Description:
Radius of gyration: 21 Å
Order of helices and strands: EHEEEHEHEHEHEEHEHEHEHEHEHHH
Shape: globular
Distance between the termini: 11 Å
Helix content: 40-55%
Largest sheet: 8 strands, mixed
Number of domains: 2
CATH architecture of the largest domain: 3-Layer(aba) Sandwich
Domain DUF1972: 7-178
Strand content: 15-25%
Protein name: DUF1972 domain-containing protein
Number of helices: 13
Structural class: alpha/beta
Organism: Luteitalea pratensis
Number of strands: 14
Amino acid sequence: MTRQRRLRILGSRGIPNRHGGFEACAQHLAPWLVERGWDVTVYCQEPTHAGFHRDTWRGVSLEHVPTPYAGPLGSIWFDAWTARDAARHDDLLLTLGFNTAVLFPWHRLRGRRHVVNMDGIEWQRGKWSRPVRGWFWGNSWVAGYAANHLIADHPEIAALLAARGWSRRTTMVPYGADRVTHASVDPLRAWALEPRGYGLVIARPEPENSLLEIVRAWSAKPRAHPLMVVGAYEPGHTYHAAVRAAAGPQVLFPGALYDTNVVQALRHHARLYVHGHTVGGTNPSLVEALGAGSPVLAHDNVFNRWVAGPGARFFASEQACATALDEGLDDEDGLDAMRRASYARHAEDFTWDKVLPAYERVLLDVLNADK
Length: 371
């Protein structure tokens, strides 16, 4: 029996994208599905003063939900409200993330069909306290049992889910990113940068993203090129202050940047993109760097090895990062080869014309399966 193609997307902060990976995924997937005949609704988290309202964007129905709290408590409240509202509708559900999977059994009890993107290994992130890591670990198990089907964004995440006995209900679908072959140099002028004349890091300033090691490695000796470290560094935050204190005069901190054109230009024109994430699965920022043709120097782990591919370079320590910079930062031929390798790796697995149909195949399988 073919059912009506109606989908509700939960778990992101909403679209158009103003935040990160899940929002970028929803922003591409939702209107693409609408063009293919789906009726799609996306829940959008808003501040208290915004008021609840509905509108549309590129044919997608948006439900804007004001949250009475800030920070993590506001996100939990938003997830609870949207989970309860989604259960009232006989639509297929796609939840991006499992952080509040304790809510998912309610969908199961109401007979709702549910696909969950299982994101990364949140319970291994050092920034979380032991109770919070326990919360994430427990929710990952609840999600696995409560969902009809699971999406893993990386082969290692798929292997973890298979080890829990869920391989038949798991499909590996990575993040996608646009291919950027041309970008204006105008955004570079704000920091007096030249094309292929600077290194770039875009990451939340957290210990598991190796920002301190990268900044120390770049600052270990005078270099011919500055390093742009994009992210929100808050006054009074111990780790943020340590990163800033370790920076030499060639390290620039422009703050958090959300303008897509600016960020794409920075990636496309970078001499080297340094990626320090140590916890997977697939990090959207690394995928976007590949799509922009950035030469990649990444932390050496199974997650980054698969995403960046053999054409990237890797480091396992601060000293190894410094050595890689010493050997590769002025190697024009090597950087050109890495740039070509990034484009090739992106084309292999991370284009939207591969990712979006893969999502739709999963959604249709769950939608039309016998309960």
